Amino acid sequence: MDSLDSLDLQLDYEEACNEATVVDLLAELRASTLEVQQLSLRLKACRGTKAPFALPALPPAEEPRARDLRQLFEWLAETVDLSSPEILDVGFEVPIGGRTVHLHRVVQWQLTAPSGLKLTAPIQHQDALGQLLAAARATGKVDSGALLHFWGAWDLIAGELTTAAHPNPEPSVLLAHRASTEGILVASWPTREALQAAVYAAPVYAAPVVYAPAPQPGERVEVEYEGQRYVGILYGVDHGMATVRCDADPPGVMTVAPLSHVRRLSELAQEENVTMLPAPDRDREVVLPKMHRRTKSSAL
Question: What domain of life (predicted)?
Fold first, then answer.
């Protein structure tokens, strides 16, 4: 076989190989195209279907509570206005349905529901709760992890809200944390105006009296006995009764009186400058234990 024939055979071989390669590539391309089409169909099907969210398998008795939680958050996501949060310092206990939570510094969102309802939550939950509701509104379903967290740590309670600042009973919904006094409240209260009104309506009390430590044995004191005052040395204290050796008494005579009737001599001048209570409190009778004197032989 001459060199020309060998060259022709080589060209024929290469052409056949190229054709086989093209066939293989076309087959792969068709397979890839088919896979893309199948994925596109599945994506369209997912977009067109909103299957109801389901928690992991729960005991039958817990399924209603999980369903109520899901429905509550779905409703909140639809009605909450996240654009204008308000920060309030409440400082009230909130009892609902036998549970009591404490509202301190809170974040509050207005709801578009009637009756001026608001969503009130502890300030430390502002970001997490806001993101949860925003995501639920965007996707149409509540995040499964967040819902599982609330199911495991919070109790959903429906009842009537009544507080010292909101005496009229009002149907409300409360999420009460199981391990603390935190609570998330859905109600028309609190409002900034209601809290300010409660502050203005609170009674004004006199400044609290700061009491000095009780006199100690060995100190110079003044004791009140049968309407008279005597100066002496505090001998001892037993079950709230003070024993005083008065300067005006002969040796061996002790005066026994309630400790509340004994004052240090150094405190007397200061007490004269203390603002007296209003007249009704000054005139109120105070019943005290009966005072008496005893001799040294019976007192010691």
Answer: Eukaryota
Strand partners, 269: none
Helices 144-153, 63-79: crossing angle, 10 deg rounding:
120
Residue 173: beta bridge partners? 158, 186
- Residue 275: CB atoms within 10 A of its CB come to 7
DSSP sequence for 83-113: TS-EEEEEEEEEEETTEEEEEEEEEEEEBSS
Question: What is the separation, in whole angstroms, between the first and last Cα of the chain?
Answer: 145
Q: What does the pLDDT look like over 140-170, one tens digit per residue?
A: 999 988 888 898 899 999 988 877 666 778 8
For residues 248 and 290, give the distance between their C-alpha atoms in angstroms, rounded to a whole number: 21
292, β-bridge pairs: 256
DSSP string, 190-205: --HHHHHHHHHHSPPP
The string of pLDDT tens digits covering residues 172-202 is 999 999 999 999 999 999 999 888 887 666 5
Three-state DSSP class for 143? Answer: coil
Q: Is residue 184 within 8 Å of 121, Cβ to Cβ?
A: yes
Any idea what DSSP says for residue 142? -
Residue 83 to residues 110, 111, 125, 130, 143: CA-CA distances in angstroms? 9, 11, 16, 10, 21
Beta bridge partners of 105: 89
